[in-house]
Specification:
alpha/beta, two-stranded antiparallel ribbon, homodimer, 10 helices, Rossmann fold, 381 residues
């Protein structure tokens, strides 16, 4: 039977697992004796290995960024709109590497893996991670793939933080840094939302301090509430209004039980919360939101981002979206200002979109054109 | 021992309970055979009873709006900055009536009261309420006090919704309607935040579908998470930044347990959540957020607010705050536009404040002056 994938799709893809057995010391001081990373690649690595692009995922992302895992897949990877033949991250030109980060729950070593020292699931005992730990583990992956320098490191949101950290930690190992809908650090409000999400998980008695594997439980409802909080903040007020208005689900007030779903938006949120908590691991969610909160690009550079960016040797592309209130345009402008102060080459696009933070994942002509132009300008030999 | 209250305070006040024994049919169709309202009054009712002002409280408010309950009180009532001698709601001029709404948890009949028909605590079986039910119960209170017409009905946030509903339900019973930091209906985003808060409560296994009294439990952690969600949305991003920045609690990352409180803002939020869940009833929170979600001023007026407001006979004062993103200035401007279209007298002040939705409770010179001027212009005989 012929598989009919869209012509501009990379088509069928399959993840691969890479095992790393050299001890890996983390920012928190603890050492992992070994770890696995699940990776997908799209396109071909060229002869001088100068066309590799690293994709860094955001909070709830994974390695499956583009293409399809089977002909039955209803949905392609999470960034399929921007990775593929003729797309901004053009797989006819680039060799694209996308991984599930350390600590993740899609196959890479994380809280759901077995701790080889104890023979038990790590659970809450999995070491706390910082963005730099991901960057260092990604560098090991680059070593394994024989990639001494990325043509570009690319990420949106938490992924953009990884891209910026790459530019500071391994200045000679990337030529371009692409930072989309991100920030040099979270605002107090952002931290507050993440903390509330974590509280929702911890409040679930099935969480057992993260030790739910050993208790044969799962904090599904806590994680669902956490996701609902996150989800509201990824959408703009406007798009929620457009999407749901104040539509009543039944056409009239039922005024029934508290459990009754009255508004369409409630039904949508409950669905989002439920499906997310079916597929995602609560400990990973705790760990990833913590890494997001801790990230502070310039913390060890006297809180001066220009000083930090002076270490960088690559060029930068920065993009933001007008209705993103979780990573607002001001945060991206701060990045651009710091880069200019550090005398770096930076291109910046502020993209009109009604879709809030989610816009970085969604189709948008201006975004695609501007992002595509920047990526097309990258020299790969 | 002399009690030393601030000179501009109304001083010592004491709540009173009024019992209503006529059957009271609610918007949902159910009937309360009796109910109590807890009420505080400040100032003196004048001879022709023309100087009475009704205060309508918001989501988590109660009857204790001004003054002190004892000389040991560390804090006065919730709107003490705006109610008292020489203050905008001047107790030298007005007779101020402030009540805990029906369904509340500060002494008025609500989910925590005993259902006289069953002899058991109502719990989740307490009838669902709409804003109009509060208005009708407040009208009964006015009857009891012999007040045929309020000089003004005043409220902020959910209280402003009650004030507007008064103007439509009892056009001849108020001369002025004061609507602060409110809206004619919530946006989908607002409903989504409320729904997530309710989900947090329902996810707490101690909630038992609202029947926690009979289970001798209390959904404290769920209610705390609900309050944290609410609290973030009442503050502006800016003020959270000013108040907490990204200050670490210990001065450095501990990277310890997930339970560790790393940022000041987390510590603050947990405190807010905990103290609120100690004093507030979860069923009341469910019920009040539902009333907030359901409110839609113009729903039965062909969704045309000008048509709705044409019923009103009073004058209006509307105020909003620049950084309030839960009830943004646009929502107040819509009220003003509709009032103008309905050919009503309306004064409007847009107040510069960094404090988000909470600003309506906080000291602010411009707010105090503008609100005070409007109230001073009200003729009381």
């Amino acid at each position: 039977m012929t598989q009919a994938f869209p012509a501009d799709s990379i088509g069928l893809v399959a993840p691969q697992t890479y095992s790393f057995t050299e001890p890996f010391t983390l920012a928190c001081g603890r050492t992992l004796e070994q770890f696995d990373l699940v990776v997908e690649t799209y396109g071909e690595l060229n002869a001088d290995k100068s066309n590799a692009v690293l994709i860094c995922h955001a909070l709830s992302g994974d390695h499956h960024a583009a293409g399809y895992h089977s002909s039955e897949d209803r949905k392609p990877g999470w960034w399929n709109g921007y990775i593929g033949p003729g797309k901004p991250i053009d797989t006819d030109k680039f060799f694209v590497v996308s991984l599930n980060n350390l600590g993740g729950c899609s196959g890479s070593t994380g809280p759901g893996s077995v701790n080889p020292e104890t023979g038990k699931v790590w659970g809450a005992d999995f070491p706390k991670l910082r963005v730099r730990d991901w960057v260092h583990s990604q560098a090991r992956l680059a070593d394994r793939l024989g990639i001494s320098q990325w043509a570009a490191v690319v990420g949106g949101s938490l992924g953009g933080m990884q891209a910026m950290r790459w530019a500071l930690e391994y200045p000679s190992r990337l030529r371009h840094c692409v930072v989309i809908a991100s920030a040099m650090k979270l605002s107090a409000q952002n931290i507050a939302f993440n903390e509330t999400a974590r509280q929702a998980i911890m409040a679930d008695p099935e969480f057992h301090g993260g030790d739910y594997f050993n208790h044969h439980t799962y904090p599904k409802s806590g994680l669902a509430v956490a996701r609902m909080i996150g989800h509201i903040t990824y959408l703009s007020d406007h798009v929620m209004g457009e999407k749901f208005g104040r539509e009543l689900r039944s056409g009239s007030f039922t005024q029934g039980l508290d459990e009754a779903v009255e508004f369409q938006v409630e039904s949508y949120l409950r669905y989002q919360g439920d499906t997310f908590s079916d597929r995602f691991d609560a400990n990973t969610y705790m760990l990833m939101t913590r890494a997001l909160d801790y990230f502070d690009l310039a913390r060890e550079y006297n809180d001066d981002p220009a000083t930090a960016f002076r270490r960088a040797q690559c060029d930068f592309y920065v993009a933001s979206f007008t209705t993103d209130w979780r990573f607002p345009v001001e945060r991206s402008r701060e990045i651009v200002d710091a880069l200019i102060a550090a005398q770096k080459n930076v291109s910046y696009t502020e993209i009109e979109s009604p879709y809030g933070h989610d816009a970085f994942l969604l189709p948008n002509e201006h975004y695609r054109a501007a992002f595509g132009r920047y990526m097309a300008g990258i020299i790969t030999e």
